[in-house]
From TrEMBL:
Xref: InterPro entries: 4Fe4S_Fe-S-bd (IPR017896), 4Fe4S_Fe_S_CS (IPR017900), Cys_rich_dom (IPR004017), Glc_ox_4Fe-4S (IPR012257), Helical_ferredxn (IPR009051)
Manner of cofactor binding, per the entry note: Binds 2 [4Fe-4S] clusters.
Keywords: 4Fe-4S, Electron transport, Iron, Iron-sulfur, Metal-binding, Repeat, Transport
Name of the protein: Glycolate oxidase iron-sulfur subunit
PANTHER family per the UniProt record, alphabetical: GLYCOLATE OXIDASE IRON-SULFUR SUBUNIT (PTHR32479:SF17)
Residue ranges annotated for the 4Fe-4S ferredoxin-type domain, each copy included: 10-41, 61-85
Function: Component of a complex that catalyzes the oxidation of glycolate to glyoxylate.
Enzyme Commission code(s) on record: 1.1.99.14
Top-tier EC class: oxidoreductase
Cofactor: [4Fe-4S] cluster
Domain of life: Bacteria
Keyword Transport: yes
Keyword Acetylation appears in the UniProt entry: no
Length: 438
């Protein structure tokens, strides 16, 4: 076999595709297959394309671009697979191979470089983005753009998302966030809180509530100053080297805290953090450190379920359903704790959605770059949400939170259905408020 073919096989992780026996168990759980009905948009179809490239039956890797670009990366196929196919690893490797060969236009190349290499990894720039959102809201510009209809004409359908962004947090409040919050009762753990990049810029209030809930549950909470973006968006974009560099920066920053656990409140970020061991498995200098970091990573629901939450006030027969984060379910394997916490609120009626594990179509920035496809998937999810007749939809990931809010708006249900992060709902029931709520 010629060296170039062997190198390509290694690049695409061809050997891992041999575990796929084309049984089809992945088909009914794949959102893109069930929505679009094309074999090339199914996990086994994508894997077969990689095999054909590795075997020389396809020579042009651009054939892979659309099928893999339209993959949500929800990894429900891994949960359904009876033979243990590592679809996530194949997806990462294939996307990276495509990106290495793709010629982006100058504007796209510059935008990718600016956002992935400069903005998301910089806490200073992400804070600036948060400040800008506050100024946009408080200056009256937001109101003016909405009334004029200009917001609806923003590119990439950003107007639809602009209408549902959460209330901004002031620069003063953002700057007053404590780096160390002590337990409100007998200490059980010291935890280091992962703030995230987009999470802290757009959902700072949820981060504040998360820290307060952890303190009420018996945790000393540290906010590590040198942490950075988790790297998930970089991995989804095929920029694996950038993702590895960010992983190393986070590992180094959190090691210094010597905390018992690294706690996050975003399903997508948490999935990336628990895979640092996989991400750096081939790096001799970082392998053990990455594995140790991943072993300490926890979703906030796991810590709250173990340590206990404050006394929760009864809700008057409130019907509640839960939109499961794909990455929390299929990568972190956290499924029990969020439901237990929701059910612990007195008086609520918990109704599980049909096809609860099916993706909502958010998937990082998928709903921006593939808006129409994302909306088709969301519409299917909303059919199941509406069947529950729930007045509250709980999520555990910022992308899911915005996507489900958009779904509620599209269905004309914004007056009767609230969409909340699990942390918001628990804090509300416990009577805990962020400073901006006082």
């Amino acid at each position: 076999m010629e060296p170039t073919r062997q190198a390509l096989r290694e690049e695409l992780l061809y050997d891992k595709t041999n575990k796929c026996v084309q049984c089809g168990y992945c088909l009914p759980v794949c959102p893109t297959y069930t929505t679009f009905g094309k074999e090339t948009h199914s996990p086994r179809g994508r894997i077969n394309l990689v095999k054909m490239v590795g075997e020389g039956r396809i020579s042009d890797l651009s054939v892979l671009e659309e099928p893999f670009d339209l993959c949500l990366g929800c990894r429900a196929c891994e949960t359904a697979c009876p033979t243990g196919v590592e679809y996530g690893a194949i997806l990462e490797a294939t996307r990276a191979a495509i990106v290495r060969r793709k010629r982006f236009t100058v504007p796209v190349r510059l935008l990718r470089k600016a956002m992935l290499k400069k903005v998301f990894p910089s806490r200073k720039l992400m804070n600036l983005a948060g400040h800008s959102m506050w100024l946009y809201e408080k200056s009256g510009l937001q109101t003016a753009l909405r009334r004029s209809g200009v917001a609806e004409k923003l590119p990439y359908n950003l107007g639809a998302f602009e209408a549902i962004v959460p209330r901004a947090v002031s620069p003063g409040e953002r700057g007053s966030a404590a780096a160390h919050v002590r337990s409100r009762k007998e200490k059980k753990y010291t935890v280091a809180f992962f703030t995230g990049c987009i999470m802290d810029a757009m959902f700072h209030r949820i981060n504040r509530l998360s820290i307060q809930l952890l303190a009420e549950a018996g945790c000393d909470v540290l906010v590590v100053p040198n942490q950075t973006c988790c790297g998930a968006l970089h991995a989804h974009a095929g920029e694996m080297e950038e993702a590895r560099e960010l992983a190393k920066r986070n590992i180094e920053a959190f090691e210094a805290s010597q905390a018992d656990f690294v706690v996050n409140n975003a399903g997508g970020c948490g999935a990336m953090l628990v895979e640092y061991g996989h991400l750096l498995a081939e790096d001799d200098a970082w392998r053990e450190r990455a594995a140790a970091f991943s072993a300490k990573s926890r979703d906030i629901s796991q810590i709250l379920a173990e340590c206990g939450v404050p006394q929760l006030a009864p809700r008057a027969n409130e019907r509640v359903t839960y939109q499961r984060s794909c990455h929390m379910t299929n990568v972190q394997k956290v499924t029990r704790e969020p439901v237990e916490l929701i059910k612990s609120i007195p008086g609520i009626q918990y109704i599980e959605m049909e096809q609860a594990e099916m993706c909502c179509g958010s998937a990082g920035i998928y709903n921006i770059v593939h808006y129409d496809a994302s909306m088709q998937i969301l519409d299917e999810k909303m059919k199941q949400a509406k069947k529950t007749d729930a007045s509250v939809i709980i999520t555990t990931n910022p992308g899911c939170l915005l996507q489900m809010k958009l779904g509620v708006e599209r269905e004309g249900l914004s007056g009767s259905v609230r969409v909340l992060h699990l942390v918001e709902y628990l804090a509300e029931a416990a009577g805990i408020t962020a400073s901006s709520d006082k």
